[in-house]
Amino acid sequence: MVKTMVRGKYLLVRADLEGNSKIIENGALVQDSGTIIETGSYSELEKKYPGIKIIGNGEQFVIPGLINAHHHGRGVLSGLLMGQTDGHLETWIHRGWGKRPLDPYLMSMATLMQQIQSGTTTVMFNQTAGPASQIRTEANKTLAAFNNTGVRVAFSIGFRNQSFLVYGDTDTFLESIDTNLAAKARDKINTTVITFDEYWEITKKLDDDYRENDKVKILLSPQAYHWVDEKTLGTIGDLSRNNGIGIHLHMAETMYQRLYSERIHNETPVSRLNKLGVLGPEVSFAHGVWLTQTDLELMATSDTSISHNPSSNLRLSSGIAPVTEMLKQKVIVGIGTDSAGINDDDDLFQEMGLALRLHRPPGHYNKSISAAEILHMATVGGSKVTTFGESIGTLEPGTKADIVLIDWNRITSAYISEDLDPLEALVSRARKDDVQTVIIDGDVVYDNGSFNDIDREHIYQQIGSELSNPTPATVFEDRSLAQQLDPYIREYYADWNLESDQSYQFNGLN
Ligand SMILES: [Zn+2]
Prior knowledge:
Strand content: 15-25%
Number of helices: 19
Radius of gyration: 23 Å
Largest sheet: 9 strands, mixed
Oligomer: single chain
Bound molecules: zinc ion
Low-confidence stretches: none
Mean pLDDT: 95
Distance between the termini: 65 Å
């Protein structure tokens, strides 16, 4: 591969949490075979590398490739469009049964094209749990889509072995509801179950297959504290340490998830995981909406990181994660769309813009989040969460050449005050349509609306033809089953309340 130079009006070398982000005005970088070898001023590097191919004309904002730190696939073919309307997670999740089955390769291609278009070059991809026969094929097809698009991936398959319908004993819950409905629900659950031995065998095989591939990290994913028994969680902690495989799991996404642990152990899920040996530098959480200060201390001291997913938390009525407190306690935070971006389009720029506005609490004494902190989440923070570490997330020499060029003229049209921090303008105003060029591992994969190695139209034609078949009757049956379970599930949680419910406050009513 030849060396290339990327130049920009601004080059964000590293986003920094302490206000010391490194930006080079009229800057450039040189990459060789997928690794950045030098950064500096364009005028100097141009002289040093005469005749080198140059990407960008000096009018773009050049940033490290964005990292979507929590995602489950689907994207354009979203759960919403498949009939899974937004709502509280505990009932919403079962409505996901009523989604049309689609080829995992095509589905992943569609969502990855969409993410590349919004400047994402690395994705934490968490595949939904399912029977062994199915998840092997799905994993292979999903990873083939990552390979074909070039997008880096931290890949895991979710594992559950308890709390299938509510957070608690599945049999006890089923015995408490209509017998006919319980039988149907039990049949449905049985189609999603896998033993832990099967799960580990699949994950270990994937890890063996991809160990030498520097674009793929295989992780373990106990789906969440309440979805896996404690003995198995302890085993997963041991397997992670003994095999050098990281862990990614959902954490305290809703208040019911925290209450599940508190009602049994009088401890939070983070505290339990700490005792089970599941926290650590290779462990990351998703969500953490209901974390306590003590949880954050445990995360900071154990170097456990987290993905913040604000759109998903709003869409599923989960609440607002304490991100400014996380940052205050030096917890490393990434940002993800969780396949539920605010406009249902997995645009990480919108996610960043939303997070910027969400974490601005009233009161001058409260700290608001900064644009640099948001960019840190989407780059350096994401590199930690996905376990790629220092190899991605910055444009420093020695890192992978994952680079995004953004149309600075559109963002600042028709005027920008010369004393405005460019990072402030970038995070406040950039969106997917501003992404001009995306480079992964030194290869230009997307440029001015076109993919270089992907036949987008062909992928969409195949998706269209698959969806032109009539919806299988089972889809509507599954959706109806989920709807019938709804009132029983809500009833189950009727007396689950925090002592002080501050999840949603109306200003001025107290
Ligand atoms: Zn998730």
